[in-house]
Amino acid sequence: MKVVLTKRKKWWIGGAALLLTATPSFALFGLGDIVFDPTSYGSLVSQLTTLQTQYTMLKNNIEHFSLKSQWQTTLHALENVNVRNLFGETNGMTAALNTNSPSASNTAWTAASVPLSSSTTGYLQMQSVGSPQFSQLAMIEASDAASPDCMTAVGQYRAARAANATANSTLAANQLDGSTATNSEVQQLNLLNAAEAQKMSEMQTQGALATCVASQMMLTNMQQRNAAAADLNTAAFVQVQRSTNDMSAANEGNTWQTYLP
User: Fold this and answer.
1) Contacting residues for 169 by C-beta, under 8 A, at least 6 apart
2) What pTM did the predictor assign?
3) Distance separating alpha carbons of residues 218 and 138, to the nearest angstrom
4) For 230-250, what is each residue's pLDDT tens digit?
């Protein structure tokens, strides 16, 4: 009898231990009933909402956009210029304006410009720095340096424009493509990077043209400045000569002193 009681006692102890170690998912009374936990339910709903948002975002990134034709523009191609050359006066100019060739630019400018004669060179050797003759010579030399460089810049732009035509057209086609292959997020970012690289190349090439325009404006300003300075110097020289060597009629010296042609 004592043995039986001992066995029952062990069963009661084991059952009590089982109840104490049961998971919180079951009720304390009524074994098998599921407990509703509002906190866990809210957490699961929040996770599901986050996953749904991520799925929608990924789906939108992968799906293609088929209405890109509204952004399409036309790439204007530059035609090659053909300079007429009857007697060799424009030798190399056509090549200079269409290709990146500094040698052709120098040849063309030399053929098209008036050279300084040997007698002029001898005459200039007797002048000094700051004289009107030297200022004119400086303007000619600056023009001889800047003008061929401008022709090279124009030719370089035309050549680069032709060389980049295929790359520009391909990029435009990919940007306007409505298929899935070119509409992933990574592909679209690559297209944006390629477009920025092409834009930078175009800006750098146009920068060379802008430099050319600035140099030509400098030469124009130099010519106008020298002409204005020469006029003032001539006026002052004439007045000094009339004052020193008065050849006017009687009582007319003052009139000619204040008169300038």
Assistant:
1) 75
2) 0.61
3) 12
4) 888 888 888 787 777 776 666
